[in-house]
Amino acid sequence: MPTATAPDPSTLPARAASALRGRATRVAFVGAGYIADVHVAALRAVARELAAGGSPAIDLFAACDVDRAKAERFARKHGIGTAFGSVDQLLAEGRPDAVHVIVPPHLHARVAEPILRAGVHVLLEKPMALSTEESQRLLAAAAEGGARLGVNHNFTYHPQFARLLRDVEAGKIGRVQHVVSVQNNPLRQLAAGDVGHWMFEHPRNIVFEQGPHPISQLVRLLGPVRTARVATDGKYHFPGGRVFLDSWFATLGFENATAQLFLAFGRDFPESWVYVVGTDGAIRADLLHGGYSLHEKTRWPDFYESTLTNWRDGKGALRAAFGAFGGYVFPLLKLASRRDPFFVGMKGSLAGFHQSLRDGSRLPVSGEDGLAVVQACERVTAPAVETLARSAAPTSPAILEYSEPRTGEVTVLGATGFIGGHVVERLIAAGRPVRILARNPSVIGAHLRHPKVRFVKGNSSDEAALSRAIEGAEQVVHLAWGGGDSFADFQRNIVEADERVAQMCLRHGVKRFHYTSTIAVLYLGPGAGYASVEEQTPVDRNPEKRSHYARAKIESERRLQELAKSKGLPLVLFRPAVVVGERGRPFHSAVGTFPRDAHCLGWGSGTNPLPFVLAEDVADAIVRALDAPTAVGGVFNLVGDVRLTAREYMAEMAKHTQRPLVYHPTPLWLTQICDLFKWGVKVVIRKPENAFPSWRDLATRSMVVPIDCSAAKRKLGWAPCADRARFIERGIAAALAPTMRSRGGDL
Predict the structure, then answer these.
(1) Among 93, 126, 152, where does a domain finish?
(2) Whose C-alpha in 83, 151, 509, 543 is 20 to 30 A from the C-alpha of 357?
(3) Beta strands of 522-577 (E only): which ranges?
(4) Residues 184, 125: one domain?
(5) 448-465 pLDDT, tens digit each
(6) What burial class does residue 349 get, using C-beta atoms within 10 Å of its C-beta: 0-12 exposed, 13-18 middle, 19+ buried?
(7) Is residue 549 part of a domain?
(8) Structurally, how many domains does the chain consist of?
(9) Together in a domain, 453 and 582
């Protein structure tokens, strides 16, 4: 609670406005992740509008992150002059007026509290905190420091919800009696198997991560939640005994109304809408597509009222259709400002917060409002948490930390990845001791938890951790890689990282260094100039015309082979092609591009055999190379003996999913024209990082050149899957099978 010397809370708005009168608001960002980029873009748009209205500018002057290098990259990217590595340093040297706290939810209270106590205004990303206790502590810190605390519930500014709110407040549907909110959405991390995110650490976390969006809308409409009855479904079991529930259905009681909330994550068909029923009408707002319908009582007979209602809905749907089209095209051509609902909602939320600081008005979403949403999340999650606490969760084998080298030990970098997991399984089956480098050991899968496996905590950019992972190992298998937005990112995260690993292997006298490249380093399109790709086929001589990934891998191969020649690096190089299998992503980009998962736009006609290979077969080749006498210096193409066409692959996918999946043959020239059109638009709008679409990179995706794997079969004794039925079972069915999921009403 506020101390005896704390400022009078009633005077805070006026004093805050007075302190900013006549000058710019100095704003800092704590946290430099993806959502921070959106904050910068939205706040710059807000600053332009405030400046146009005669208000002083907003000065985006500092970025702060515990990873100082990350903060510096963020600052350079957005033209922000100062970067700090800690909140203490920011407060001592930066002296901001307001801070946007954009760190993961479990850090909100810890990061925001000292800022508030220092008298600096804070805008917290949702959720405000993870408990009532933490939220109240933040409110007390704000009162003690004389600071204002806002929460970024940007979905309350969603254009369709804002319209709904205006109509409700205008009394168009009378008194609200019931609200239904449906959120049926994909979840990228779940689809990719990337379960290291905070929201997967505890069953309640997903509600605190995704639930505040619809819950804040319900609270804005109806006030605090009083009661909750909850059912869940769709249970996943993750490493370390973690449980994830993908569906939550809550019946909520408010002071004067009721509501139903449906939250579903990882779904194939996205839906997001709010339906409000009042005493004299109803409103349905489609938050995804922009549709909006208002039904009111009229004086007309039922048949005519139905006619008018459908006529109005039809006109509204037509307006929404044109609005959706114009909202995308006009901002793209710089003929209008950005108008997508997410950005508009974010901008409205940020504008409301900063305007309230300047004019002393009530915060649009205050700390008290944030507390009400946190308490609602607690009510929704409490029954599930209590039930799961009483049930015995499946346990995973212990994770064993590395202590000292073992005879014949193999270090696997990238072991938590798709191919890496299969390599570790194959090594275990072969009786080899394994050492892995893992950034977050708690997410190591059950398939990697074995008495023969030891882990070192860290990543390949950490010299000390990398050295500890390699020192004393007999051989190293390197499968890790990184990405980025520009080629400079790929250069840093692939080329430089690969060379750093190779140099470490040389330093510690590793017997063999097995590097997994990709078949994408070769040109596989029409006019290649060779009948088939063989071991000695050179990499693409025009890397500048290839994708960032292929270009980086080409450069990595070149540098590693130079180290092999100049310093004796014992290099074994693998080039797997289209890798599929258990724990893989079945909607593979080698088959085509997927604008929606039910539709695949092919790279050509889709009638040529594609170079598929099972992940387990790739792992088998790598493990065989550990002892193969002629492996060092070899370059091994890895393609299986079952080579489905793109059409056949999609047909098998449709059969196993029982879904109407469609393959659309698309001529390469048509794809190129579309890419050129997109490139031209980006030229007009001066979008950075706009590379000219390369015909060569597009053409190689057709993969019409056969690939010869005789070297791997001869030198390694490799025999990939040759049975079509088994390939489909292991490559497609296993990838699609929801092996970690059970259904059946857990509560």
Answers:
(1) 152
(2) 83
(3) 571-576
(4) no
(5) 889 999 999 988 888 899
(6) buried
(7) yes
(8) 3
(9) yes
Place of tokens 């004019």: 359
Q: Which of 1-5, 147-151, 197-201, 567-571 has the lowest mean pLDDT?
A: 1-5
Q: Cα separation of 403 and 391, whole Å?
A: 35
pLDDT of residue 744: 42
SS3 (DSSP) at 307: helix
Contact 612, 735 (CB under 8 A): no
Confidence of residue 307 (pLDDT cuts 50, 70, 90): confident
Query: In this structure, what are the phi and psi dihedrals at residue 504, rounded to the nearest 5 degrees?
Result: -65, -35
Q: If you ran DSSP here, which 8-state letter would residue 494 be given?
A: I
Q: What is the pLDDT of residue 684?
A: 76
Residue with tokens 């002296």: 95
Would you say residue 662 lies in a domain?
no
Same domain, 385 and 259: yes
Residues 6 or more apart in contact with residue 89 via CB below 8 angstroms: 64
How far apart, in whole angstroms, are the C-alpha atoms of residue 30 and residue 101? Answer: 5
What span, in angstroms and rounded, lies between the C-alpha atoms of 633 and 512?
A: 10
Does residue 102 sit in the same domain as residue 147? yes
- Asked whether the beta carbons of 564 and 510 are under 8 A apart, the reply is no
Counting Cβ atoms within 10 Å, is residue 91 exposed (0-12), middle (13-18) or buried (19+)?
A: buried
Q: Which domain holds residue 564?
A: 410-586+611-642+702-737
Pure H helices in 146-197? 159-169, 188-192
Q: To the nearest whole percent, how much of the chain has pLDDT over 70?
A: 93
Say whether pLDDT at 742 is over 60. Answer: no
2 in a structural domain? no
Token couple for 351: 């504008």
- Report whether pLDDT(596) > 90: no
What percentage of the chain carries pLDDT values higher than 90?
A: 65
Query: Where does 583-642 have alpha helices with state H?
Result: 615-625
Same domain for 136 and 227, yes or no, is no
CA–CA gap between residue 436 and residue 428 (Å, rounded): 12
Report the Cα–Cα distance between both ends of the chain, in Å, rounded.
Answer: 37
The closest of 235, 239, 181 to 210, measured between CA atoms, is 181
The answer to the question of residue 355 being in a domain is no
- What is the token pair recorded at 442? 């708690």
Instruction: Give me the helices (H) in 434-539, please.
Output: 463-470, 487-490, 497-507
Going by their DSSP bridges, the two strands 271-278 and 281-286 should be labelled as antiparallel
User: Would you say 239 and 394 are in contact if contact means Cβ atoms under 8 Å apart?
Assistant: no
E-strand ranges in 160-291 read: 176-185, 227-238, 242-253, 258-265, 271-278, 281-286
This prediction has a pTM of: 0.79
Q: Which of 125, 152, 179 is the last residue of a domain?
A: 152
What would the mean pLDDT of 738-742 be, rounded to a whole number? Answer: 44
647-667 pLDDT, tens digit each: 999 999 999 988 899 999 999
Which domain CATH number covers 178? 3.30.360.10
My answer on whether 500 and 414 are in the same domain is yes
- CATH code of the domain covering residue 537: 3.40.50.720
Alpha helices (runs of H) in 124-187, residue ranges in sequence order: 132-145, 159-169
66 and 189 housed in the same domain: no
Report the alpha-carbon distance of residue 272 to residue 249 in Å, rounded.
Answer: 15
Pairing of strands 571-576, 599-602: unpaired
φ, ψ (nearest 5 deg) of residue 238 = -110, 165
Q: What is the pLDDT of residues 430-452, one digit of tens each?
A: 999 999 998 877 777 778 889 99
Question: Coil, strand, or helix at residue 531?
Answer: coil
Q: Where are the beta strands (DSSP E) in 473-553?
A: 475-478, 512-516
Question: ω before 127 within 30° of 0 (cis)?
Answer: yes
User: Is 638 found in the same domain as 527?
Assistant: yes
Give Cα 225 to chain centroid, integer Å: 30
243 class by beta-carbon count within 10 Å (0-12 exposed, 13-18 middle, 19+ buried): middle
